[in-house]
Amino acid sequence: MKRVVITGLGAVTPLGVGVQHSWNQLIAGNSGLVSTVGWGSQWDSIPCKVVGKVPEGSIADHKWDSSDHFTKSESNRLALFAQYAMTATAEAFADSRMDLLSVDKRRVGVNVGSGIGSFHDAYDNSVNFHEHGYKRVQPLFIPKLLTNMAAGNISIKYGLQGPNHSVATACATGLHAIGDAYNFIRNGYSDVMVSGSAESSIHPLALAGFARARSVVGSFNDDPQRASRPFDKDRNGFVLGEGSGILILESLDHALQRGVQPHQIYAEVAGYGLSGDGFHITAPPESGEGAQLAMEMALKHAEIDPQNVDYINAHATSTKIGDIAENNAIFNIFHQNGHLSVSSTKSSIGHLLGAAGSVESIFTILAMKHDTLPPTLNLENLEQNNRFVFDYVPQKSRSKQIGIAMNNSFGFGGVNSSVVFTTYIP
Fold first, then answer.
1. Which residues contact residue 326 at a Cβ distance below 8 angstroms, ignoring those fewer than 6 apart?
2. Which residue among 84, 115, 148, 357 is least enclosed by CB atoms within 10 Å?
3. What 8-state DSSP symbol labels residue 375?
């Protein structure tokens, strides 16, 4: 089978626009979580008042303004989640140093997903139709709504004729997109894949829905940066976030043939696992059995012993049952691994839903590249459970040599995914 490597990264996150800026903020222990107080009556009616929103402002300050990236016509045509994805893709292509004029675009594909698509367009057009009738529905309402339109618009912009694919598996979307893209390359469908996900979910209807489902945090409204606290005994729900992460996956042969140097390869994708819980629409089984199956499959395909894994970027969303279930799964596989570190970068950015897995994969890969463990912010009092035995990197980042890392993503509907990354060795 072909070896698959990562040669480019792009990101839009609650920590800011751009991979390097987001990483610097993450490692410095900064938070992208903000209060919704004062945003309007709809927001004020919702008991949860904390979100992870992409900061607005000038690109010079690493903040988001559509006009920095798109013309007015393009902004009107593209849903926000697609704008995030296209912006991250532009950064990833530039980072990869790929000359798109010289590659065979029939062998370059896209697999970019979204868990929800455009909440904003669904809500606005529903209100317009209800209050004003047919003629107030936007002509591009349906194309803007579809979750595959991030992938579609990326394919169109760059003239890519390889697989044009999209994933919509709730909060596992981003990692499924990366894993599936990995398999597309390994199985000969393409040489290069633009892979990842995007979400623009900061909308009062979205927050209200998650609040009614009792999924989002119900406390720390007066101190939003403390609201996301994976593995902490006082956690009580996730923080809704948004953004995009895009990775350029490429067969090793293709990368080397176009002149990529070994030091320009971020990491190698070594294994991919996926499974279903078969249990409940929103909650995992406390045993973590489904998550365990996905992790075991990823390790098996990577031919890596659990003892050799250095770091896991956990899905850990800061929910009561979810963090316990994932930790149980990790314990069952890695309990004999005395040097394993586990952290959750959701403590800094919140839960980006469909975009979580791709952004967190970028953070995992950069942790390997820089031999630096991202912190689990707000981990002040570890969950009182005799299976919480690992190094959870509380509060502060620190140095550690990381040669093998794993990223996990799980989602509503009982979907589970896990990817193993390794340092590239020629």
1. 284, 288, 291, 314, 315, 316, 408, 410
2. 148
3. P
Eight-class DSSP state of 40: -
Residues with active-site annotation: 171
User: Can you say how many angstroms the Cα of residue 294 is from the centroid of all Cα atoms in its chain?
Assistant: 17
- CATH architecture label of 4-264: 3-Layer(aba) Sandwich (3.40)
Sign of torsion over alpha carbons 94, 100, 102, 103: positive
pLDDT per position as a tens digit, 347-404: 999 999 999 999 999 999 999 999 999 999 999 999 999 999 999 999 999 999 999 9
Q: Which residue has the tokens 């998550």?
A: 291
Positive or negative, the CA dihedral 243, 170, 418, 3 is: negative
Give the span between the Cα atoms of 311 and 367, in whole angstroms: 9
Do the domains spanning 4-264 and 272-422 agree at the CATH topology level? yes
* Residue keyed to tokens 């948004």: 242
Q: C-alpha angle 212/214/220, rounded to 5°?
A: 110
Q: How does residue 1 score in pLDDT terms, banded at 50, 70 and 90?
A: confident
For 272-422, the fitting CATH number among 3.40.630.30, 3.30.450.20, 3.40.50.2300, 3.40.47.10 is 3.40.47.10
What is the rounded distance in angstroms from the CA atom of residue 22 to the CA atom of residue 10? Answer: 10
pLDDT higher than 90, residue 233: yes
- DSSP reduced 3-state for 139: coil
Amino acid in the structure at residue 82: A
pLDDT digits 0-9 by tens, 94-111 = 999 999 999 999 999 999
CA 284 to chain centre: 19
Q: CA triplet 307, 245, 123: central angle to 5 degrees?
A: 130
Q: Are 342 and 314 in contact (CB under 8 A)?
A: yes
What digits encode the pLDDT tens for the residues 121-154?
999 999 999 999 999 999 999 999 999 999 999 9
Can you give the residue ranges of every domain in the chain? 4-264, 272-422
Q: What does pTM read for this prediction?
A: 0.98
* The pLDDT value given to residue 20: 99
How far apart (Å, rounded) are the C-alpha atoms in residues 212 and 115? 19
